[in-house]
Amino acid sequence: MDLSADEVRHIALLARLGISDDEVEKFRNQLSHIMENFEILKQVDTTDLPPTAQSVNLENVYRPDEPAPSLPPSDVLANAPGQEDGSFKVNAVLE
Amino acid sequence: MSDLHKITIHEAHKLLKEKKVSSVELTEAVLEHLHKVEGKVRACVTITDKQALEYAKAADKAIAAGNIKPLTGVPALIKDVICTKGIRTTCSSKMLENFVPPYDANVIEKLKADGYVIVGKTNMDEFAMGSSTENSAFFVTHNPWNLDCVPGGSSGGSAAATASDEAIYSLGSDTGGSIRQPAGLCGVVGLKPTYGRVSRYGLVAFASSLDQIGPITKDVTDSALIMNSISGYDKRDSTTMPCEVPDYTKALKSDIRNVRIGIPKEYFVEGMQPAVRKAVETAIQKLEELGAKVDRNVSLPYTEYALAAYYILAPSEASANLARYDGVKYGFSYRDTTNMWEAMEKTKQYGFGAEVKRRIMLGTYALSAGYYDAYYLKAQKVRTLIKRDFEKAFGQYDVLVTPVSPTTAFKIGEKVDDPVQMYLSDVCTLPINIAGVPAISIPAGFVDGLPVGMQIIGKHFSEEMLLRVAYAYEQATPWHTKKPTIA
Lengths: 95, 487
Hints:
The complex is a heterodimer. By secondary structure, chain A is mainly alpha-helical. Chain A has 3 helices and 2 strands.
């Protein structure tokens, strides 16, 4: 199967991943080649089979909703690229 | 003692306990050797000389007070995907180049409680995506057995460092073979525990249903000692199993008479290096000589679909996990714009390397509208079949034995431009993560001076059986005593 350049740009947009024109062409070729190798799965009959999301038999794990100390705000903000008044600083969301 | 860096954990413990050496002396010897060979091996992203000596002094105090545990005072290296409070944790990515975690991973809390000494953080494929450590955003790590070759990956730094005695042991993480394959290619012991045996709290997430942390050690006894320390339930990782942790060292018996071993033929893949096949077959004969009952006619028929299923499942999970790197809370952030979307897109464009972008793209595609059923859901159903293959086999056999990788370590640069060839390097290890079962890679000989690994696979939570078989083989063979000459 062959992806088009527009499909590659669309996937990048879904992932909010910036992509150069060179990368569009490179990924178009590489992803197409990788996905050719996925075609083999079509040979497998999976009618009526349940999907497996994880491999050990744990289900709906709950724990009591008990308050416990959180990290101090200064620790949480220590790696922030931008901060102001004890908050993360971001660009305007609504313009 | 000039060769102090060469010892194992259990040898170090004996010397520390008998007060023949102090943790500071041991740590200084390890650091001196590390600095001597690191220019050639390049296994470490960060070397923590200062913290190492602080931890060592604290360990010596504990020992003087009579409080010594098997890991107390013993120097270790930690893969740079495991969060260490106050010590930079980069995932070998520009994205996290300056990230200093505000908390410790659960495994680090446990190692600290046992008095460990950290000497540094090891290089890896960026965000653990890769099989050669060439995807590190910083530099390439070299195989200590042949510096022109890769150490494998993604825990290539941890495996190369352990093989070259830069630390007494190390931790790695394994999503599709990232502990076992580099351990195999570097001639050391690597254990991927059962999914849910070791907490993933503080492990930077790649593919959450496949990731596990595990030990890379110089011998099988050390592997058991690390498992004793890091295993167990953690309420902060709801996929950890709330069951008791056995004393894994009790499994270290040389007797494997009547252990039932199956050899799945699908793992002796086409294109396998003939000398690797021969080495693994010789190792299997040795297991037979030791009294195991070997059946060479075992089939896991869905094995051939594992690679495709894995490269849908793991990138799909990765594309969701890596969406968090938006340049807001931590990590690299593109700031030369006032537009929110442009900032986010350029943060990822400049912060991630090629393989990480490739997997985000693959995963996003497999999860996108119109393709979800054909790719992601299909792969999850194939996962069911692969899991059932193993369940069926473990009704008849105690363990399965296979090669770790189809070849010995390949040359640096040989596969970087061909993702599909690179992915094939994990063809023998990734079905194990899909099924969530445990497996250990142990040294099983050499081909042209490069190590060959043998993989022993067991059913869920059967690490004791893996360690028992691995230990019996190790005690009957000389491979784990060989050391590379780093020239």
